[in-house]
Design a protein that fits this description.
Elements (H helix, E strand, L loop, with lengths): L1 H24 L3 E4 L7 E3 L6 E3 L3 E8 L7 E5 L4 H7 L20 H10 L3 E10 L2 E7 L4 E8 L1 H7 L17
Antiparallel strand pairs: 1-4, 2-3, 4-5, 5-8, 6-7, 7-8
Length: 174
């Protein structure tokens, strides 16, 4: 009888572990198509996101978290033109994508941002409250986008009051 109980517990644990793994890596993700706005970067002139030329877009997102967005694309625009026109972000930290989304290598992108091989730009600030879209562009035109928590989001999501230099948090976050 004890063996049956032990085997039952082990089988339940394996099934629960497999289900949890599936939910973290595969479930909830959906393919994202580039919409009319496409890939956007924030202009240094007016502080508003502006669409840029791009092609070969691949993207994923999930409704379960605003941080699950990842995208890969190419652009014909030069880094020199982009750095003069759009807001550069110093603290771009790409988040790891599921292994099956193989065009996005967060470790390599992060290392290339640190060495200056790639440059991170502000895509859209507060795409959702406290979350910015960051876009990294390489000299050869490869581009990658992801969402990351901004300074206002870090404070508010920790349960602290909204800082004076941040937009008001939506009801329920404060």
């Amino acid at each position: 009888m004890a063996r049956v109980i032990i085997v039952g517990i082990l089988v339940s644990a394996v099934i629960a572990g497999a289900l949890l793994y599936y939910q973290q890596v595969y479930a909830y993700y959906e393919e994202v198509q580039a919409d009319a706005q496409g890939v956007q970067l924030t202009s240094v002139v007016d502080g508003l996101p502006q669409p840029i030329l791009f092609d070969s877009f691949e993207g994923i997102d999930a409704v379960s978290s605003p941080l699950r967005y990842r995208a890969c694309f190419t652009t014909q625009l030069s880094q020199a033109m982009l750095t003069e026109t759009f807001v550069i972000v110093d603290e771009g930290e790409p988040r790891v994508a599921p292994s099956w989304f193989d065009c996005f290598d967060a470790t390599q992108i992060g290392a290339d941002l640190e060495t200056g091989e790639a440059i991170a730009f502000l895509g859209t600030e507060n795409i959702q409250y406290g979350i910015d879209r960051i876009v990294a562009i390489y000299p050869d035109g490869r581009g990658y986008a992801w969402h990351q928590i901004n300074a206002c989001g870090e404070v508010v999501f920790d349960g602290n009051p909204t800082p004076d230099d941040c937009p008001p948090a939506p009801e329920g976050l404060n």
